[in-house]
Amino acid sequence: MKKVLIVDDALESRVTIKKLLSLYNFQILEASDGLEGWKLIVKEKPDLILLDLYMPNKDGFEILKELKEEWLDIPVIILSGDHSLNTIEACLGYGASAFVAKPLIKEDFNNAIKTLCA
Q1: What is the pLDDT of residues 17-62, one digit of tens each?
Q2: What phi and psi, each to the nearest 5 degrees, are found at residue 76?
Q3: What pTM value is reported for the model?
Q4: What pLDDT was estimated at residue 95?
Q5: Res 118: pLDDT
Q6: What region holds the Response regulatory domain (predicted)?
């Protein structure tokens, strides 16, 4: 069973993401801020990370940079309300595998999951 880590400071976002993931056979881990997320990444080595960008203690950009620096080759899907071209390009440049805009559209979310977990 694949482990998926949701890192998002908004409880309602985590609840929505978990509902969307219920279609899949994943073990779901959650973190409510970037620092907690990083600790879980190091400890649990998830198969996929669903990452918000703007969070307290450590933001999504910092996590992407640290994943790259530590040579942790874990696919990351960015889930963010900031879907400006500059933000998307920065995320992909830092190694994100996909970007899905919030509010989440079920089809876009599922396409990203299927592409990375097929």
Answers
A1: 999 999 999 999 999 999 999 999 999 999 999 999 999 999 999 9
A2: -130, 130
A3: 0.96
A4: 95
A5: 64
A6: 3-117
Q: Which residue is it, tokens 């933000």?
A: 87
The sign of the CA dihedral 79, 92, 2, 110 is positive
Domains in the chain with CATH codes: 2-117 (3.40.50.2300)
The whole-number average pLDDT for the span 79-107 is: 96
Return the ∠ at Cα 115 (arms to 64 and 56), rounded to 5°.
30
Quote the tokens at residue 44.
């649990």
Q: How far apart are CA 65 and CA 51, in angstroms?
A: 13
CA atoms of 118 and 92, how far apart (whole Å):
20
Residue 35's nearest CA partner among 57, 62, 54, 14 is 57
